[in-house]
Records
---
Amino acid sequence: MKKILSLVIALAMVVACCACFSGSAKAEGKLVGVSMPTQDLQRWNQDGANMEAQLIEAGYEVELLYAANDIPTQVSQIETMIADGCEVLVIASIDGDSLGTVLAQAKEAGIPVIAYDRLIMNSDAVTYYATFDNWLVGVKQGEFIRDALDLDNAGDKTFNIEFITGDPGDNNINFFFDGAMSILTPYLESGVLTCPSGQTEKAVVATANWATDAAQARFENILSSYYADGTQLDAVLCSNDSTSLGVQNALKANYTGEWPVLTGQDCDVLSTISMLEGTQSMSVFKDTRTLAAQVVTMVTAILEGTEPEINDTETYDNGTGIIPSYLCEPVACTPDMIQELLVDSGYYTAAELGLE
Ligand code: BGC
């Protein structure tokens, strides 16, 4: 009996070992380059860490580099990845329009390129795009403001709103901002919403590098120019958490009216804490683990010569044609959802959010 048991255990170990070996054997020794824009914002650290961990788990070797929000640095890091023999490049660009030359080198070397989260523009070297449904992100922010202010039942009431979005070189802002505006524009047109600063154009409300201090500086100006007389600010459409934090900083020091409805995106730790404290009304949760997992399956399909899973072949034209895309689903997160969405799912520990 004992003998049979040891035999069964030994056999099980051999099977497990073989399964393990064959899982990684296809990937073994293959180098994947992962180029991330910056470590300044929390999400890219998470994206980089998730990508690295999941690629290694699948058996790949990884060259992960962060470009400090500096375009020439990103270009030279990608050149290094090509020279080092990366077989696939996964790139979250700083400026979608600045990688044409280096990606032409990648194409020349036969290296497929996956645009990660942000579409790389005007390059025919981009093979696939994996992101979240960026239009839906904006729609969810716009819908939140609409519902929080109950704009459909405003009657004679009017509300004041201001706008802030991200870096003009990031193609995503076209989707975030236009998606939100698709919901809010009718209310601006009917006069239920008014923008006292008059700053409603995307180019005017953009924020270089999505930087919190730039967002703060612009809002300090807006507050001193248009709200210092006691005008009530009812809502700020903030395209993401880093810009939302800048607005919150400006409001804390320069505004005494009723706190406005504020949107965000990413569920960064600081913004999640702001939601718990009541200074940010919502954020849009984009689970970076899901995006990383999707990209790892894309990498595997490409390297195995099969078709990766795609769920959008219409939306993302990078100037050279439509890039086949996989869009993950964003989720609107309000303070009451934090425990389930972010803590119970293991995205953050309760301690990270100051909950224990
Ligand atoms: C991403 C957002 C992020 C922003 C700033 C965008 O491209 O989609 O999730 O907040 O960049 O890093």
Note: The longest strand covers residues 126-132.
---
Amino acid sequence: MKILLTGGTGYIGSHTAVELVAAGYDEIVIFDNLSNSKLDVVDKIAKIAGVTLEFVEGDILDKAELKKLFSDYKFDAVMHFAGLKAVGESVEKPLQYYETNVGGTVNLLEAMQAAGVRKIIFSSTAVVYGEHAKVPYRETEPSGQGITNPYGETKHVVEEILKDLAESEPGWQVAILRYFNPIGNHSSGLIGEDPNGIPNNLMPIVMKVARGEMEELLIFGDDYETPDGSGVRDFIHVVDLARGHVAALKHLHEGVQIYNLGIGEGRSVFEVIESYERLSGRELPKRVVARRPGDLAAYWAAADLAAEKLNWKTELVLDDAMRDTLAFLKG
Ligand code: NAD
Ligand code: UFG
């Protein structure tokens, strides 16, 4: 089975490539413009997985490159990771986010349609549930209401496009995966989250502080109505998340299926920091500051649908993610 991974040198795509090979899917082609990842990731994936992968440098905004890609390779399925993901930046540059995340996806779907490829797994987010959804978030909850940033809107729009497309034409097999908060990395420490520019997610910032590249970790609020006052999220190990993609691929069938990929429980920002500090034996310079605008107090996934339909559940815990982060930091 030949599988295209758009954005496959990125954080989640690279871990998914490793898990696909481990599950026997070793015909992988990565298509990425390297705007937020590095070329050497291809060799690192190959080293971990023990196979060679094909890499094509290209942009989902370039229709001609996509056309060539689909004529050069006969794909059976596509996993679509390519996109922009910084929530804060999306508020400042909404057009860039709509262009890449929505426009780029439309280009990809057009190229797939023209080539007769109708299996796609799409990277969505828990943000589509919006700020009024009941916790834990269930796939049956309405989505698209009360989304607090353009990034989340782009993911919601793509979900709607995929539903309309599958409705318009028989044969489409679509899995929409709503990720909660991926953390950690492969235990080898070879690949991990290494964003260009200033990160805004918790773990990349913890890593920058640990490396001395940032002075201190700012904890955004300790006055939430949560057990310890800090924000609560469903932190899922990226290797478990990657395995969720393999499970979704195995269970693809006609129509659109939507699954949460999360652990199914919330952990707090203070708990994450505690785990990191205990395992590293080092205290991080840190300071509590005001809440970050737009942040929700607490949410996590209802994870039973993916367990039931995909026969998938998470196996790794917070300490595993921190141990693997330390391995990545050592390089
Ligand atoms: P990432 O930035 O590490 O990976 C995305 C990859 O896409 C990068 O390698 C980047 O170079 C590439 N890319 C960006 N624009 C492109 C373009 N126009 N053409 C070709 N390639 C392009 O991000 P990630 O964390 O691996 O996220 C993967 C997907 O999952 C994204 O769609 C993201 O929105 C979604 N997602 C991520 C999270 C998270 O917390 N990491 C949560 C929910 C959803
Ligand atoms: N946090 C801090 N300090 C920081 C960074 C984060 O205290 O420097 C806190 C936040 O306030 C929040 C928690 O850590 O309580 C997690 O924040 P992240 O920025 O790591 O993640 P978010 O929950 O805000 O959003 C993330 C991704 C989205 C994704 C979503 C899915 O940014 O892309 O999870 O739930 F869609």
Note: The first helix runs from residue 11 to 22.
---
Amino acid sequence: MEEKSLIEEAKKARKRAYTPYSKFMVGAALLAKDGTVYHGCNIENSAYSPSNCAERTAFFKAISEGKKDFDKIAIVGALEGVEEKDWEFCFPCGVCRQVMLEFCKPDEFEILLWNGRGEMKKYTLEELLPCGFSM
Ligand code: THU
């Protein structure tokens, strides 16, 4: 799948974000090696800590469906109501990076970010999580 198409899938996922507290809507599209795309959005909770990030939603959906091998993830995020042209790059949080490391090769797995003005940033997991912990 083309990178731009995966970004479009992340934008679709973002529309389903449940964010009554922060109003910050994130969407992720995780591409498995077999071509399946798993969507994820952030899901907040009134007790705050049970909230889940978009990236982890996508990973947990995929893992729970038996998928284990992944190529890349696209992520978009912006406050509700902000026009797409004003979206900034949304980097995955540290917890989500650690979850990615559990399932992906750090020097191969790619993280695509999109800022709403046609610019894309691309990183390997290793670049965003150097010296990550694993057993
Ligand atoms: N959020 C994500 O979904 N992914 C990240 O990597 C960073 C933060 C969500 C969590 C919360 O619902 C909102 O963005 C504001 O922190």
Note: The CA atoms of residues 91 and 113 lie 7 Å apart.
